[in-house]
Design goal:
The structure holds 2 protein chains of 2 kinds. Chain A is mainly β. Chain A is about 0% helix and about 50% strand. Chain A has strands at about 5, 10-15, 20, 25, 30-40, 45-50, 60, 65-70, 75-80, 90-95, 105, 110-115. In chain A, strand 5 and strand 6 form a beta hairpin. Chain B contains no helices and 11 strands. In chain B, strand 7 and strand 8 (about 75-80) form a beta hairpin. The chains are: A mainly beta, B mainly beta.
């Protein structure tokens, strides 16, 4: 079974600074997908960024980028130029490659605080 | 933008009672999911549903749970005889299902409290 570990229960960053959230995972599969989801207070989880394991290039979405280290099974999220609206719980998630039936395996989440 | 909706936002029930949690997935999505999050723990996959039947289910999804798509819009999770340990946030999600890379769109959740 796959597992996802987020070792930082809480992180704090000054507005406009850069912060990196850590995620490691364990799987015996060679092809899979990794995701970062954001859950603002009292709001639903929304997808921030995804990475396909067979792609060497790290995914980027505007201020959000990942550092995907397949051999180390590490998948960190970097948020540049942090904004107050980035304050949320961030969940790292894993999914096997395949069709739509498989669920996501989540980490416990990191609570990100943005200091004005 | 289309959203997944869930009702009720908070459900309180007595142990042993049946509860039905409701979800309205995004209309053109084909795959539907239920997850739960016990307070302070991880979000856990319960079940996926496609073409009016269960596609995958986790070990958590035992005989006390069932899912149904009773009409063209709703997707429900029924817990037959609730236990104290069923207290959790329950999230519904939907996706187009074309591939495993698809975005799963989540609802805001239903907080279930079993007394």
């Amino acid at each position: 079974a796959q597992t996802v570990t987020q070792s930082q229960p809480e992180m704090s960053v000054q507005e406009a600074e850069t912060v990196t959230l850590s995620c490691t995972y364990d799987t015996s599969e060679s092809d899979y997908y990794l995701f970062w989801y954001k859950q603002p207070p009292s709001r639903q989880m929304i997808l921030v960024i995804r990475q396909e394991a067979y792609k060497q290039q790290n995914a980027t979405e505007n201020r959000f980028s990942v550092n995907f280290q397949k051999a180390a099974k590490s998948f960190s999220l970097k948020i540049s130029d942090s904004q107050l609206g980035d304050a949320a719980m961030y969940f790292c998630a894993y999914r096997n490659r395949g069709g739509g039936a498989d669920g996501l395996t989540f980490g416990k989440g990191t609570h990100l605080i943005i200091q004005p | 933008e289309p959203e997944v909706t869930q009702t009720p936002s908070h459900q309180v029930t007595q142990m042993g009672q049946e509860v039905i949690l409701r979800c309205v997935p995004i209309s053109n999505h084909l795959y539907f999911y239920w997850y739960r999050q016990i307070l302070g723990q991880k979000v856990e996959f319960l079940v996926s549903f496609y073409n009016n039947e269960i596609s995958e289910k986790s070990e958590i999804f035992d005989d006390q749970f069932s899912v149904e798509r009773p009409d063209g819009s709703n997707f429900t999770l029924k817990i037959r005889s609730t236990k104290l340990e069923d207290s959790a946030m329950y999230f519904c999600a939907s996706a187009t299902g074309y591939s495993g890379a698809d975005t799963q769109y989540f609802g805001p959740g239903t907080r279930l409290t079993v007394l």
